[in-house]
Amino acid sequence: MSRLWARFAGLFSSKSFIGVDKTGNKYFSRMEQIDGLGEYLKEKRWVVFRREEDPTSIPVEWICWLNGQRKRAPTPEEMVELEARRERVKLNVALLKKEEEEKKAREGTGRKISIGKVDGPDLTSFVRQFPPDSKGGEPEEASEETDKSRAKEHEPEIVSAEPPEPKTTEPSGSGSSFRPGTWQPPS
Asked: What are the start and end residues of every segment in region (Disordered) (predicted)?
């Protein structure tokens, strides 16, 4: 019970204010005794949010300090410098995107770079590889017979001196009969 009371009293007496970020969140730390080790102390760090608890409002530098990845808390000067650097990076990214769009426009490609929704693939080269319909543009009705006849026309003949191997669910065979890609795991 005395340990519990010491921890509770320690919350109010030994906390020290470390700093504040640009959104108004306040950061604190205190030294706490490690259970069962007597004289050993460990630093506890926490944040008190200004408004509602929104972990996304904490800057990266303060997150690193809270997690113990930084020994010293970020200074206000450091935070200003890092914010200015982030703004420069954003401007550079916007400039590079603009240059990329201008380069694409000069090259004559009609594709525009966009962020977010992506255009579908250009299928014109894919469609050109198929011959036009020989009967005047009217599409045939799909049937199993036409599918089978088309498959036989375009199917290459496979001539093998070896007898066909039975399909199994487990890999088998020796090194001489191995063919990459032939075995498929059972589904």
From this structure: 97-187
